[in-house]
Amino acid sequence: MYMSMTIRQAYRLVTVSLLTVFLTGCGAGAVFIIDGTGDTSGNTGGNGGTDGTVTDGNRDETATSNLGKTSDEPNDTFAEAIVAVFDDSDIAGLQGTVAQKSDLDVYLLGALSAGDQLTINTTTPNSALDVSVAVFDSAFRVVYINDDVSGSNFDSTLTWIVRRDSDAFYLAITNSAFAGTGQESGSYQSDIIVNRGVGVPATMPQILVIDFDGGTIDDAPLGPTTIPAFDADQISDSYTGQTEILKGLIRDSIARNFSRFNIEVMTSDNPPAAGTEVATIFMGGFSSTMFGIADNVDLYNADFCDDAIIFSESFTPRIFTNTPSLEALAEAIGNVTAHEAGHLLGLNHVDDDAAIMDDRSSADAFLEDQEFISAPLSRDIMSLGTQDAAMLLEDTVGLVGN
Ligand SMILES: [Ca+2]
Ligand SMILES: [Ca+2]
Ligand SMILES: [Ca+2]
Ligand SMILES: [Ca+2]
Ligand SMILES: [Zn+2]
Question: I need a surface site. Which of 8, 223, 231, 394 has the fewest CB within 10 A?
Fold first, then answer.
């Protein structure tokens, strides 16, 4: 049924480049996270190789630890974690098998201090497994997630600098939620290196520009996309003549969601100086399959110039139980815009209707005051741990006044 599934979900990434980049100093080229209904197909093609089964644990099977076991299932929870044994050079080598879809293998990496750098490369030389990994702190809050090395390499890699001391970090290894048939299980190897004292990167503020003026995006996931200028009348007759008021209310809703953080929300009506590095969110037009799409989940905001699109005309009254007031509509569009901006700042999906990063709510949930809160990770990311969105935003862009 038309728009019956008001599911926001990340799908595989598609390369795009912007033909017309609004008034910024930003270059072109990106991959997109799509939030909407649509294609649920997984990966195609395997890595090849034989699908041998390897016992979970340290690659040096003689390794021992006084902290706990160093091999074998069960290891599906933080409490059951296998201890990763590091050598004198702060290197550990793991191996294991995602025995079946959703088998989680959890490893205890131990204490790390703010400024330590963690590098983890997880490969599948002997299996077709589409692996996915995440790192959690001692409070079971995710600090880094990687599914794929690239659009063509479904192994996992991460390099991350610890922002906060923790006496126990954990590594979880499982299959990608997007794994294709035959890629949901198999063996893996994981190589871990700790470089101590690299130093904590400074938090960097971000400017978001809401572009209400429309434009052309080349090679978007559905092909080249022209976004018309934002027009309240195109959402519903109920909002005819309210375009300027609605633009202001949407801007205010987005700004409220980010008010604690060093995020400045500007619009195409009051833009920053030419050449400023900004993340641009184009707002306008209709999609039958999505509310919005964002460039990649940009962990710790490595790219200040990424982009997203909000299809404002997809917020038709038909998706809601009742036709929203102008204020409630602005709240809904503002929440979904903050969600896409959250991806551009490194946030993944969670499962909680009250959370901005929720991926499975009815559209009515958008009408409420969603916030960047701590919530369980979406099962499409990893069915383990939480994401503390406020902590990650604080560690990425900083808090206002700091
Ligand atoms: Ca296993
Ligand atoms: Ca397991
Ligand atoms: Ca993967
Ligand atoms: Ca970014
Ligand atoms: Zn999303």
Answer: 223
Using alpha carbons, select from 349, 313, 342 the residue that is nearest to residue 329.
313
The DSSP output letter for 174 is: E
User: What are the chain's domains?
Assistant: 15-41+202-397 (3.40.390), 57-195 (2.60.120.380)
Ligand nearest to the CA of 146: 3
Cα(105) to ligand 2 centroid in Å equals 4
User: How far, in Å, CA of 84 to CA of 158, rounded?
Assistant: 17
E strand intervals along 100-185: 105-112, 117-123, 131-136, 142-146, 156-161, 166-175
CA of 292 to the centre of ligand 1 (A): 36
d(CA 326, CA 245): 9
Q: What is the pTM of this model?
A: 0.88
The 3-state DSSP class for residue 312 equals helix
* Structural contact between residues 137 and 164, judged by C-beta atoms closer than 8 angstroms: yes
Structure tokens at 6: 């008001």
Give the Å distance between the CA of 233 and the centre of ligand 4: 31
CB 284 within 8 A of CB 313: yes
pLDDT at residue 193, as a whole number: 98
Which pLDDT score, from 0 to 100, does residue 225 have? 80
Closest C-alpha among 232, 256, 234, 229 to residue 242: 232
CA of 65 to the centre of ligand 3 (A): 30
